[in-house]
Design a protein that fits this description.
6-stranded antiparallel beta barrel; 3 helices; elongated
Length: 315
C-alpha cells in the first residue's frame, strides 16, 4: 500500500467547538422543556402531602367530636392562632368531654316491676345511689369504677352525667345560683351538680358515689331520662410556633380550660401555621356547629382546609 495515499482522520478545533456549542444549545432547550414538568410534579406532590396532613387531622377531630357530651365544647380565648408576623404566636385549642356509653334511666313514673329508680332533689348520701338502665349498656367492660367524687374529676374513674347544658360558666355563678348543669364544675356541697363517680356497672344498672362531699344531689332530671357515661376530657391544641396540633386525653376535668392540660399527648398534624376554632351552640331543637380551619405550609406554599361538624347539644 502506498503510504502517500493514507489520509489522517480527525476533528479540527473549530469543529469541536461548534459541536460543543450545538450540544449546549440543545441541552438548554431540552432542560427548559423538562424542568417545568418536573417542578410541577414536585409542586403537586407537595400540595397533595399538605392536603393529606390537614385532611387527616380534620377527619380525626371530626370522629372524636361526634362522641362529645352535649354542650361540653369550649374554646379558649385565643380561638385563632397563627405564625403571621403581624400576630403574636399563641396556643389555641378546643376541648370537650368524650362519651363512652349512655342510655335512659328508670324514673319514678316508669313504676312497676320493682326496679330501682333514679331519685332527684334528695340527699344522695341517704338515698339509693344506683338505678336501672332501660335497655342495656353496650360498653360495660370499658367503664372504669371508683369511689368518691374526686375519682371522677381526676380521671381515675368514669363519670355519670345527667342533663348537661353547660351552664353556668363558672363555679362562682354556680354557688350564687345554688345549682349547676355544667359537668366541668364537678359536684359540691355548695350547689347541686350533675356529675358523679361511677361505682358499679352492669348491662342493666349503674351505681354512683359522691359520698366524700357529704350532702348533694342531682339538680335536674333529663326530660328524656337520658344519662351519659363520660370517660375523659379531650383537647386538640394548636401550636403554630412549633407547627403542630396535638391531642391530649386522660387528664383531670377542670372548671377553667387550659391549653396545657397534661395527660397523654399524641401528634395529630405537623407543618401547621394557623388554626381557627369556633363553636355555635345552636338551640335545643338543632345540633351545635363546630368549625375548624387548619393551614399547613411548607417551602413557602400553604393550603387551608375548613371542616364544619354537627355535634349533639340536647341534654
Amino acid at each position: 500500500m502506498d503510504r502517500q495515499n493514507l489520509r489522517v482522520a480527525g476533528f479540527t478545533l473549530i469543529e469541536m467547538v461548534v459541536v460543543i456549542m450545538i450540544s449546549a444549545i440543545l441541552a438548554v432547550v431540552v432542560g427548559m422543556n423538562i424542568s417545568r414538568p418536573i417542578e410541577s410534579f414536585f409542586d403537586v406532590t407537595r400540595r397533595a402531602q399538605l392536603v393529606d396532613i390537614a385532611e387527616t387531622a380534620l377527619q380525626r377531630m371530626t370522629r372524636e367530636a361526634r362522641l362529645s357530651l352535649a354542650n361540653s365544647f369550649r374554646i379558649n380565648t385565643g380561638a385563632t392562632c397563627t405564625t403571621d408576623i403581624s400576630t403574636p404566636t399563641m396556643l389555641c385549642g378546643l376541648e370537650f368531654l368524650r362519651t363512652l356509653d349512655g342510655g335512659r334511666y328508670r324514673a319514678q313514673q316508669d313504676g312497676g316491676g320493682g326496679g330501682i329508680v333514679l331519685n332527684f332533689n334528695v340527699n344522695q348520701q341517704d338515698a339509693t345511689s344506683s338505678f336501672d338502665v332501660l335497655g342495656q349498656l353496650d360498653n360495660v367492660a370499658d367503664i372504669q369504677l371508683g369511689s368518691g367524687s374526686a375519682d371522677c374529676i381526676s380521671g381515675v374513674a368514669d363519670c355519670l352525667v345527667i342533663f348537661n347544658t353547660g351552664q353556668p360558666a363558672t363555679v362562682a355563678d354556680a354557688i350564687a345560683a345554688g345549682i349547676s348543669t355544667n359537668a366541668y364544675l364537678a359536684a359540691s356541697t355548695l350547689y347541686d351538680g350533675n356529675i358523679a363517680t361511677i361505682s358499679s356497672a352492669s348491662t342493666t344498672s349503674l351505681g354512683f358515689d359522691n359520698s366524700d362531699i357529704g350532702t348533694w344531689n342531682f339538680g335536674f332530671s333529663s326530660p328524656q331520662q337520658r344519662f351519659v357515661v363520660v370517660d375523659t376530657p379531650i383537647s386538640f391544641i394548636c401550636d403554630p410556633g412549633n407547627g403542630t396540633i396535638t391531642r391530649r386525653s386522660d387528664y383531670p376535668i377542670t372548671a377553667v380550660q387550659s391549653t396545657s392540660p397534661g395527660g397523654t399527648s399524641s401528634l395529630v398534624a405537623n407543618h401547621v401555621t394557623a388554626c381557627t376554632f369556633t363553636y355555635d351552640a345552636g338551640a335545643p331543637t338543632r345540633s351545635a356547629l363546630v368549625t375548624i380551619a387548619i393551614t399547613v405550609s411548607e417551602e413557602g406554599e400553604g393550603v387551608r382546609l375548613l371542616q364544619q361538624i354537627h355535634v349533639p347539644n340536647a341534654p
